[in-house]
Specification:
The structure is a homotetramer of 211-residue chains. The first copy, chain A, has ten helices and no strands. Chain A is mainly alpha-helical and 211 residues long. The first copy, chain A, binds a DNA duplex (21 and 21 nucleotides) through helix 3. Chains A, B, C, D: It comes from Brevibacillus choshinensis.
DNA sequence: AATGAATGAGAATTCATTCAT
DNA sequence: TATGAATGAATTCTCATTCAT
């Protein structure tokens, strides 16, 4: 009664495996909004447009739905590293690609990420999956910057902090937009460029001190 | 069974208000970990060391506990602005102060922030409160940077993006530490300095281009 | 998962009736162990190695399976009486035959008997069927003993009590072995002989008193 | 709607611990008739005249009710042995006492015994408790008879079989009456005396053979 | 004739909340 | 003021059974 069906079953033909997908989509959507407990099987079934019991024909129990959704987070290291391919002369383009790629990845997984964020303390298996995306992103970028530092292209310094700043920016924007529904008065593309410029300046500058 | 009392009342006089505080503290702690629904009145009462019904002598219902907790988020604009007091020559010190002050504020409010994060979609009144802290922080810093740009101290540009990057960094670290229990291999103080340096370089550099 | 198929159909022709038997066998086995409710159609189908729905092609509903099983209890009076054929000089041999025959009959019907025992109060039609075996056994023996008493071969007395004792002994042993899985430290054959001896002594003795 | 309340709550005073007892009584009664699964918490609560949820304030879960009921079966060896106190001259009186005592014990525990009988295969802890009563009864009597045999009062022989016959008789009668609601055309007292006489004759007779 | 998908009725259990003391 | 007992509403899940293929 809150929301209409999630998908068009509209008939009775050819929705064989579709039911399972509808359930997953409904659960994902609801859990991302209401949390695991808030996404009751009744609400899931209503949103999916199926009978409540049908859920249990497709999944052993409610927890199994979550586990299935969690499989949607796969390791993204390789993909991120691809965006950083190139030598120092291309750093700026690489950073831009990286920003876009990372942000897009967050958006594509926004529901499962929200679920992880919400359920971090309730479902132990969630934590490691949850940390993988943001932390991997910091690591991959940090490693690349470190490499350039080692090659003398960048002044020695805080590659890790720089990577963290860069990644944080997009994660934060993502959270603001999709969790808090907050318009940051930012066009994403604009943010990618601005942040890239600031970071480029920040790490190629010459006024570093400490350590 | 899981956790001991949050603090025994160990006396006998004037516990009226103390009981209320114990309930609030227990609820805050549990909701921050388990969410609103996960923090059952039974668990709250056990952690608070009071009878379950006692909760309802102090609060109309469970929702009222949350509302009370939300009052704990007050506007922090004034305090943040104080940390940015000074002229351009002190910018670096200002940024460091700002970073420390902002991060400390997050930590001091970590439970209620987690609750807001978790319940953003369930309790409408949460959203505006929740957005206040991070967004205010961006705004305040952005305004100050803009001011310096207007005064010619900083090249025209992306004050808002810069502020966002700076603030994001600490919010992200805060989330990683307190939500995901992820050690970022960062000492906070080190991060404050590194991020400040990078930002200083980033915004005072001379290679800006973008529109 | 618990038990393998009750028997593969290993062929392809004429399994129609066989499927039905497999279902009956599985249901009998499960109901004897777990009771009517504990024998779910799913478990029955798994043990029978058929699809759950197939059950309902062969039986109107689950209750009909039980009814079919109950038909397996037929009157045994004739058979029991056959074991008691003979004159008084053969009493001991007759008793031995009777014991063996009765016990064997119990064992052959152990599953349906257990079902009756378990479901006595749930399925009204069960009770009369259930009582038929043990009570008939007492009656038939009692009649025979009475006959001998009337002929003067046995002292007047408690033919019915004697028959009850005799029959009880084997029913009790049967229950202990097949319901409680209790080894009574008895070989059945030994028990048949011992009980026969005791009964023979008991009813041919000369020290009777009671009214 | 099937049965009225089990006990007179009729007011609201002084039924503090009584509620628990009412639930236990209702559960015992229903489980003895319908089995564990057949005794739904709803039916129990209705028969007990309490709200369904109240059951779970008094018992962790349904299984805990059964466990509590099972505690009602305590070791009866001592009591049975008391009934067999005396020397050989009193054997007949002892047997009578024993029959009465054993039968009374069965009747007093009739509900829990029926539950055990029904659930023997479903609840593993039931089996050992269940076997204790009947087997102990056989053992105790068998030991006493053996003792008399060793003292030369009784001919060497099948004390165990004799004990089994005796005990079986009453257990069988008990089952017939309380499980199958079958009138055996027996007054219990008459059966005690008849069975005692037959056993006395049976074991003191002189026509034993084998071993 | 057999099966995979779907479902209504009902099961045990949890939870926030009220009542009486 | 605080508490133990009680409860209605809702939740996850099971089961027998039907439908369409």
């Amino acid at each position: 009664m809150d929301q209409p069906d999630i998908g068009p079953s509209q008939g009775g033909r050819g929705e064989e495996q579709e039911t399972r997908e509808r359930i997953l989509a409904a659960a994902s959507q609801l859990m991302a909004k209401k949390g695991y407990k808030g996404a009751t099987t009744r609400k899931i079934s209503q949103l999916a447009g199926v009978n409540e019991v049908t859920i249990f024909r497709h999944f052993k129990n409610k927890e199994a739905i979550l586990e299935e959704l969690l499989k949607g987070i796969v390791d993204i290291r390789q993909q991120l590293e691809n965006d950083l391919h190139g030598d120092f002369s291309e750093l700026k383009q690489m950073l831009l690609r990286y920003a876009r790629g990372y942000y897009q990845m967050l958006v594509e997984r926004k529901e499962i990420l929200m679920i992880c964020m919400i359920e971090a303390d309730n479902h132990p298996e969630v934590i490691k999956l949850f940390s993988s995306l943001p932390m991997t992103a910091v690591e991959v970028l940090s490693n690349k910057l470190q490499e350039f530092q080692d090659q003398g292209h960048l002044p020695k310094g805080d590659a890790c902090a720089a990577a963290l700043m860069f990644v944080s920016t997009f994660f934060y924007s993502f959270m603001a937009k999709y969790r808090v529904n907050l318009s940051l008065n930012f066009q994403e593309e604009q943010l990618f460029e601005d942040a890239t410029n600031i970071l480029m300046n920040g790490i190629t500058g010459n006024t570093h001190s400490h350590r």
